[in-house]
């Protein structure tokens, strides 16, 4: 019988020491929570929390052909990136479906690509098959850890270990000293709150986590798991691969068409997207809140006027809104009126809204870009 291998991040032992409840996620042994999902969720909304994102892929590309490679392989326009900045982009298949959604940072003469954990092997293999000319690819996912500090107080905490780090602009990256150790630090996030991603050598990850907890002990900073991370991203209506995004879904119907630059020239999947745009989408992703008790979950049906109209892709109870929230696809042409979710065989009224659900975040609150 084949024994399944479960990957562990450099922080696995520390998670267990801190009382993390461990689960398998995308082939990794990861903490789903520590003190509790709601407590961790609110810690990030109100103070700051730490997440282990080391299960995600960190792939580096360099060489004179690296820019051209990314330009023809991904959807966003890499030529518009200044040194030290990153952007959101998409890897498509030949049919215009989403292989993965990515973040690419420009680091002087090379690029760092952040891919989803479940798509690590797929994207690495995909890149290898397309490499041409002077392009060198190095997968440093095992060498570097990835620790995310998120929350409105994250800048205050980061400053204690790296004075001046709070001046780093959003979606920028820099090589800085953190607690006397050099590492890359970016400022993006997946929660709707201000925050940083630290990329220390794997051997330094545990020390960094402890140092960040100590620097923020007066708040306190919370150790957080995948449960709160999922709820935080859903309150912002951020898509998650395997839920809103997959190889049968195109960027336009998933509301991430803004990351596709059709005017930049040819790229993999462009011809398919042109055909899709010409005929229009057959479905569209919507955000909704529930009007009564009940929590929508992935796979639940969506109805309009009692007639089947789509499917929930993500759903949860929102600690900030105190109600059920969800994302889902409905048939094109439907306005979403008289929307309902089928929860355990019962019809739960829902209201379509303009995302995000939570509008008070330190990054995407009122008046924020």
Key attributes of the depicted protein:
single chain, 20 strands, Alpha-Beta Plaits, 20% helix, Gyrase A, domain 2, six-stranded antiparallel β-barrel, Elongation Factor Tu (Ef-tu), domain 3, six-stranded mixed beta sheet, 8 helices, 369 residues, alpha+beta
Runs in which pLDDT lies below 50 for 5 or more consecutive residues are none
Q: In the CATH classification, which architecture of the largest domain applies?
A: 2-Layer Sandwich
* Major sheet attributes: 6 strands, mixed
Taken as a percent bin, the fraction of beta residues is 25-35%
The secondary structure category is alpha+beta
For the record, the count of structural domains works out to 3
Compressed to H and E, one letter per element, the order equals EHEEHEEHEEEHEEHEEEHEHHEEEEEE
Radius of gyration: 21 Å
What is the β-strand count? 20
Could you tell me how far the N terminus lies from the C terminus, measured between alpha carbons in angstroms?
A: 53 Å
Give the full name of the CATH homologous superfamily of the largest domain. Answer: Probable tRNA modification gtpase trme, domain 1
Strand line-up across the major sheet: 11-12-13-10-4-14
């Amino acid at each position: 019988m084949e024994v399944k291998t479960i990957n562990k991040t450099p922080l696995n032992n520390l998670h267990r020491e801190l009382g993390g409840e461990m689960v398998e996620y995308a082939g990794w042994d990861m903490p789903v929570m520590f003190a509790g999902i709601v407590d961790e969720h609110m810690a990030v909304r109100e103070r700051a929390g730490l997440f282990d994102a080391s299960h995600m892929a960190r792939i580096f590309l360099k060489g004179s052909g690296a820019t051209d490679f990314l330009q023809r392989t991904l959807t966003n326009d890499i030529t518009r990136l200044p040194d030290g900045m990153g952007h959101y982009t998409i890897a498509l298949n030949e049919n215009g479906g989403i292989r993965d959604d990515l973040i690419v940072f420009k680091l002087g003469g090379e690029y760092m690509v952040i891919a989803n954990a479940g798509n690590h092997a797929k994207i690495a293999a995909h890149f290898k098959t397309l490499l041409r000319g002077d392009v060198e690819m190095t997968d440093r996912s095992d060498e570097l850890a990835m620790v995310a500090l998120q929350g409105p107080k994250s800048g205050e905490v980061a400053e204690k270990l790296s004075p001046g780090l709070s001046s780093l602009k959003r979606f920028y990256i820099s090589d800085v000293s953190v607690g006397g150790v050099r590492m890359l630090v970016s400022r993006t996030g997946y929660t709707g709150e201000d925050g940083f991603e630290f990329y220390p050598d794997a051997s330094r990850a545990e020390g960094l986590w402890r140092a960040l907890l100590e620097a923020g002990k007066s708040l306190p900073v919370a150790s957080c798991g995948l449960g709160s991370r999922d709820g935080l991203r859903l309150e912002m209506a951020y898509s998650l691969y395997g839920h809103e995004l997959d190889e049968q879904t195109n960027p336009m119907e998933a509301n991430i068409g803004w990351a596709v630059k059709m005017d930049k020239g040819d790229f993999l999947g462009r011809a398919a997207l042109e055909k899709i745009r010409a005929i229009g989408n057959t479905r569209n992703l919507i955000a909704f809140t529930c009007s009564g008790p009940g929590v929508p979950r992935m796979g639940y049906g969506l109805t309009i006027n009692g007639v089947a109209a789509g499917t929930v892709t993500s759903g949860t109870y929102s600690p900030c809104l105190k109600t059920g929230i969800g994302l889902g696809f409905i048939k094109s042409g439907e306005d979403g009126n008289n929307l309902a979710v089928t929860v355990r065989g019962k019809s739960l009224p829902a209201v379509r809204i303009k995302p995000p659900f939570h509008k008070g975040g330190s990054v995407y609150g009122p008046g924020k870009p």
